[in-house]
């Protein structure tokens, strides 16, 4: 591998001067300077900062709804009467549930933490709670699933977060009024919000007291939009490492964009953010005839959030017997193969997309290394990185380890500016259309100095085999 320099004179420009060894290119006017780095997302400054170190996690939606295998909101969406739905508890017996196998799948994908539904909207509890009989201990299985999973996570030092639905279709004090994600008023219920909050507080205290160290609490579906910061304060007192999301009783610690529904073009986040997505298109819980997202869609989504200093929580819905669907296992392994090859561009880096005007790519950086994330449709096999006009000392495609040809020259598209820019050439756009390509560019100077004016004729710098 070597660096070559050659000079060409463009008609109408002055005679060429010697090209500096640095690889800087001439321009008729000073090129734009890359925008400086922002301050990034402020850290918590306490035990919750694990959240910024382990940024790719697994979400698990599991409960009685896995038995019919249609949707985690089966009771509501399929209009199943409560009296009929609760009888599913008599069939709950996940004899093949092995927490260690779940964690093996988690690690195969490159994931670093786990979040599980302790109680979804149907009210069925996966732990030994004293607050309701509608729980795993009153099923043929008769084992505390949250306890088993927590023990496995502690053994393997994998942070555990707990999901909890505020809406509850079973607890008689919850005021079901037929709003979104609620049942119509039920015969025999005694709607009483204050009593329900007492029930909720007691359950949250159980979850935060009986299972060792908990690293997060993931609220969902605060339909009444009730505000009460004291509930999160209780969680923080009991579990100081727990990060809390923004779907509970106050703003919490982080935001939760879901399934790419929120169109966000920000180049970086200014607040802790954890995107959540499922491997299946229709359901978060197990669905027998699920349509699975393509590798291309999920890898782009994962990269798009991690490259902006966000977290990513990817969900799998286990089958009724406690095992993961084979399609999900295969998908996780493929994600892990990609993640393993490119993780250096996503871990312990800073977002840097503001340094280029090319909005078809995203940038991350570490010291004097720049990573180019090609997480949108590649319309060609080349990428131009305005306003940079300095060659890297080394350019590598992380996915394969192959060297990338780099040039700095004036292209016809930039004739009005008469400025040459850094280009990556010959990328395997067609052969890698189902993945996200990421290039590593190493430089011999600070990244803020990658644009420098040089007087004289157009010069072309070429770094290749």
* Low-pLDDT residue intervals, each spanning 5 or more residues: 1-32, 455-459
Relative strand content: 15-25%
Helix proportion: 10-25%
Q: How many strands, which pairing sense, and closed or not: the largest β-sheet?
A: 7 strands, parallel
CATH architecture of the largest domain: Alpha-Beta Barrel
CATH fold category name of the largest domain:
TIM Barrel
Distance between the termini: 5 Å
* Tally of helical segments: 8
Describe the global form: elongated
Order of strands across the main sheet = 6-5-4-3-2-8-7
Return the average pLDDT rounded to an integer. Answer: 90
Query: Using only CA atoms, what is the Rg?
Result: 26 Å
Question: Can you write the helix and strand succession as a string?
Answer: EEHHHEHEHEHEEHEHEEEEEEEEE
CATH class of the largest domain: Alpha Beta
Account of the protein in words:
With 465 residues, the protein is α/β, with parallel strands linked by helices. It folds into two domains: 2-37 and 352-464, no CATH class; 47-345, TIM Barrel. Helix content is 18%, strand content 18%. The protein is built from eight helices and 17 strands. The strands form three sheets. It has a seven-stranded parallel sheet with strand order 6-5-4-3-2-8-7. Strands 1-17-14-15-12 form a five-stranded antiparallel sheet, with no helix packed on it. The protein is elongated and about 80 Å long.
């Amino acid at each position: 591998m070597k660096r070559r320099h050659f000079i060409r004179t463009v008609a109408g420009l002055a005679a060429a001067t010697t090209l500096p060894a640095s690889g800087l290119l001439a321009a008729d006017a000073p090129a734009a300077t890359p925008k400086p780095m922002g301050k990034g997302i402020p850290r918590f400054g306490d035990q919750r900062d694990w959240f910024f170190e382990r940024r790719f996690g697994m979400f698990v939606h599991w409960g009685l709804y896995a038995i019919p295998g249609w949707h985690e909101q089966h009771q509501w969406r399929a209009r199943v009467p409560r009296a009929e739905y609760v009888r599913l508890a008599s069939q709950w017996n996940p004899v093949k549930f092995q927490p260690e196998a779940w964690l093996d799948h988690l690690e195969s994908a490159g994931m670093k933490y786990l979040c599980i539904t302790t109680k979804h909207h149907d009210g069925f509890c996966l732990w030994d709670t004293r607050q309701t009989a509608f729980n795993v201990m009153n099923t043929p299985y008769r084992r505390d699933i949250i306890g088993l999973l927590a023990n496995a996570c502690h053994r393997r030092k994998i942070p555990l977060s707990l999901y909890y639905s505020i809406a509850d279709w079973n607890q008689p004090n919850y005021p079901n009024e037929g709003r979104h994600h609620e049942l119509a008023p039920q015969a025999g219920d005694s709607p009483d919000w204050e009593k329900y909050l007492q029930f909720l507080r007691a359950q949250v205290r159980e979850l935060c007291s009986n299972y060792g160290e908990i690293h997060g609490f993931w609220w969902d579906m605060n339909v009444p939009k009730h505000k009460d910061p004291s509930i999160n304060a209780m969680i923080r007192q009991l579990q100081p490492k727990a990060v809390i999301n923004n779907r509970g009783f106050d703003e919490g610690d982080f935001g939760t964009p879901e399934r790419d529904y929120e169109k966000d073009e920000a180049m970086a986040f200014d607040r802790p953010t954890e995107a959540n997505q499922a491997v299946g298109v229709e359901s978060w819980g197990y669905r027998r005839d699920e349509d699975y997202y393509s590798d291309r869609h999920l890898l782009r989504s994962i990269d798009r959030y991690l490259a902006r200093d966000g977290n990513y929580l990817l969900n799998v819905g286990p089958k009724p017997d406690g095992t993961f669907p084979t399609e999900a296992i295969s998908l996780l392994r493929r994600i892990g193969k990609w993640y393993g090859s490119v993780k250096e561009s996503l871990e312990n880096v800073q977002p840097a997309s503001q340094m280029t005007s090319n909005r078809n790519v995203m940038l991350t950086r570490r010291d004097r290394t720049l990573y180019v994330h090609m997480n949108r449709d590649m319309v060609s096999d080349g990428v131009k990185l305005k306003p940079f006009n300095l060659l890297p000392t080394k350019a590598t495609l992380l996915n394969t380890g192959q060297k990338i040809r780099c040039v700095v020259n004036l292209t016809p598209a930039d004739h009005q500016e008469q400025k040459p820019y850094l280009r990556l050439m010959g990328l395997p756009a067609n052969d890698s259309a189902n993945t996200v390509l990421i290039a590593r560019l190493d430089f011999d100077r600070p990244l803020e100095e990658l644009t420098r004016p040089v007087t004289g004729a157009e010069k072309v710098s070429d770094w290749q085999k």
